[in-house]
C-alpha cells in the first residue's frame, strides 16, 4: 500500500513555511543534516511518517481489489464488487472502472506487470532502471501520442487507443511483453 519512501508528513498549508525555513537553514549553516530538517518539520507541526497512522478513506477496498496478480483479475474484482458490494463499494468500483475504461488498456497492462515484478527488485535504482527500459517503447507506442492528443491538444477526451478494453489485449500478451517489457 505504501512505497516506504516518505519519512515525514506535514500539512500542505505549511509547505511554503517549511521551504522558507529550509532555505534559511541552508543560508546560515555550513552542514544541513537530515536530522535538522526533520526537527524543522516537527517544529512546524509535522510528524514522522508511519503507514499505520496515515490511511485514507478507500484503503481497505483498494487493498482488496488491487492485489498484484494481473490487470484482468483486478477488473474482475472491480466488476464483482460493483454488483455485490456495499453501496460505498459499488460507488468506488463504478468510479474506478469509469476511469480505467478511459485509460489505455495497453498502459494499464504494462503498468500492472511492472508493479507485479517490482516487488522482487532489490532497490529503487533497479526499479527505475526497469521503468526506463519500458518507458521509451511506451512513449513510441501510438497510445501515448493518442493520450496527449485527446487530453492536451484537441482536449476532446475522445481516446482512440489501439486496444479498446483490457480483454482485447489477451491475444497479444506475448508480443506486448516482448515489445514493452523486455526484461521479463
Using brief descriptors, characterize the structure shown:
single chain; 184 residues; mainly alpha; two-stranded antiparallel sheet; 2% strand; globular
User: Would you list the SSEs in sequence order as H and E?
Assistant: EHHEHHHHHHH
Q: What is the structural class?
A: mainly alpha
The major beta sheet can be summarized as: 2 strands, antiparallel
- Radius of gyration, whole Å: 21 Å
Q: Compute the separation of the termini in Å.
A: 24 Å
Shape summary = globular
Please count the helical segments: 9
Protein model, in words:
The mean pLDDT is 90. The protein has helices spanning 15-28, 34-43, 59-65, 71-84, 87-101, 105-118, 124-140, 142-153, 173-180, and strands at 8-9, 47-48. The longest helix has 17 residues, at 124-140. It is mainly α and 184 residues long. It folds into 2 domains: 8-48; 59-180, no CATH class. The relative contact order is 0.09. It is globular. The protein has 9 helices and 2 strands, in the order E-H-H-E-H-H-H-H-H-H-H.
